[in-house]
Amino acid sequence: xxxxxxxxxxxxxxxxxxxxxxxxxxxxxxxxxxxxxxxxxxxxxxxxxxxxxxxxxxxxxxxxxxxxxxxxxxxxxxxxxxxxxxxxxxxxxxxxxxxxxxxxxxxxxxxxxxxxxxxxxxxxxxxxxxxxxxxxxxxxxxxxxxxxxxxxxxxxxxxxxxxxxxxxxxxxxxxxxxxxxxxxxxxxxxxxxxxxxxxxxxxxxxxxxxxxxxxxxxxxxxxxxxxxxxxxxxxxxxxxxxxxxxxxxxxxxxxxxxxxxxxxxxxxxxxxxxxxxxxxxxxxxxxxxxxxxxxxxxxxxxxxxxxxxxxxxxxxxxxxxxxxxxxxxxxxxxxx
Amino acid sequence: xxxxxxxxxxxxxxxxxxxxxxxxxxxxxxxxxxxxxxxxxxxxxxxxxxxxxxxxxxxxxxxxxxxxxxxxxxxxxxxxxxxxxxxxxxxxxxxxxxxxxxxxxxxxxxxxxxxxxxxxxxxxxxxxxxxxxxxxxxxxxxxxxxxxxxxxxxxxxxxxxxxxxxxxxxxxxxxxxxxxxxxxxxxxxxxxxxxxxxxxxxxxxxxxxxxxxxxxxxxxxxxxxxxxxxxxxxxxxxxxxxxxxxxxxxxxxxxxxxxxxxxxxxxxxxxxxxxxxxxxxxxxxxxxxxxxxxxxxxxxxxxxxxxxxxxxxxxxxxxxxxxxxxxxxxxxxxxx
DNA sequence: TCCGGAAATGAAAAGCTTTTCATAACCATC
DNA sequence: GATGGTTATGAAAAGCTTTTCATTTCCGGA
Lengths: 336, 336
Hints:
336 residues, alpha/beta, Rossmann fold, six-stranded parallel sheet, six-stranded mixed sheet, DNA-binding, DNA-binding (chains A, B)
């Protein structure tokens, strides 16, 4: 069933049917009704492919994730927000997750190009030379989420990783902690990883506290890796630090779990502050003190920004930094 | 830049370029090389829309979610698994979340039809009359996830909700509990909601334990709703039940949090068993005893099933019931 | 040298819309 | 009743591929 057949049955021309469907011009009520009746009874649905081919616009946005797994990060709510915004504007989502594999990521960019998506929301992590080569003259507008890049200079929406991490660490210092450990995300992740670490280090150094390499470890976002990192720190330190800043809530919970299993108490024996404010952070036992950086907001902003670019050409602000907030709960103890 | 222009520049016909791109027929090495060179330097990418229009196949699967929010359920890992399987088979994903809104859900089905997706993975929840009308003669293969429907009789992959819930409750009974409360998911969700409830009730009745309406409440998947449900139970019961079966881990954690805040201990004062085995369940404090129903497996099976249908016509098994396992941890105390 | 068949290539149709341009119909005004 | 201007409709091009069918080229064998 195609538009031609509908036209035939309704005894009108193809153009007329098109006009009825799209409401793009006046059609005599009586004719319109006849066409609609035919559409109704045949269950005809226009073929978007043909339409998009001719209009040269797909009303589809590619969402490219470069995440370990959807349930290991707070990305779920960001995606939700994106999905809500785009739905409202009549865009569909083409979804892809490269799982940190740069090769695959490039494949997805090529795919998006072939599928002629109108724009891309890109949760970037790491760039290879190939990335630069391909993206340098990429013909589709891209908005980066969670990371910016000086070379490519795409519009972006980012978390305030550096300052928030610094703030979190300073909070620990303000509570009297001096020996503060750190569990980080992979450094290859320039956003969450490196920036949060820099924030932590800055806070320490600025307060004349020195970094203890034995009290620092790196995880891979997974809960388990948080536990392992904690374990290795405990092994390496003759006396454990009184507090830790952990770069993601999931790893923080892994770390806390490990602590608790060892019979250490939180926050009496060691204090923890996390990052993300994952939806379960506030109901953990003890409720986790952490940095909230509104993921819904990030998703909404990013989608809005892309839409803006799609409609005009130049957005007003090319970079949006999300607000953050330290959620003080019960995983940190004040010591003197 | 289109295939015509590439052909012109390489001094060959359109057909030849097409053949080079798709490797669909022999082309003289020398010609092939020339065409590839042109493609390389022009950065030409074939237009999928045209290809799909002509081939009448989009290599795209619609994934329709009917969930409250991506980060409130264990769906993340299911989607991950789906995404992995489909990627491997060369399919793209068109993603949509109807947020429980039946109207929107139908719109998405229409959209998928217009976009000509090859198949649909449908996380169904509730059906309206309209659903039946539309889906009765829907022209695209659908695999349902998490729920089956006797009328539409789509192939499906489901959790063993009833038996697992029964099992969980029986476990509580085996540990000596007699007064067992229940916090359920919305009943409108026929799968997670009603089935799990039925399992709970069956276990109770089969063991000559009677249901106490004051010890039962309903949440909406959210963590907070679990807390509220717990609160209302506590308010209504002069002496609280010794244990509860909670239909989702997230709500279970909300409930536990509320309990802990009230100064009640888990499991000494009240035992809890959840459902889902969300990735954080095992690091909660105390680690949550819960039902694991492998979400990755469900996603993989569903995607495989759909692919099978897409390639042949009739799948061997039309319904797959996922295994479950009771993960015994520390949120249940044996009482005598 | 010629013939037959295989291999390589090209022309054109088909897939389904939208949209431009032309035509037809209609109405009101002078 | 002719004219001018809307308004409604249709024909056909354009958008970019794939694929069928026809044609050309090539090669080996007689």
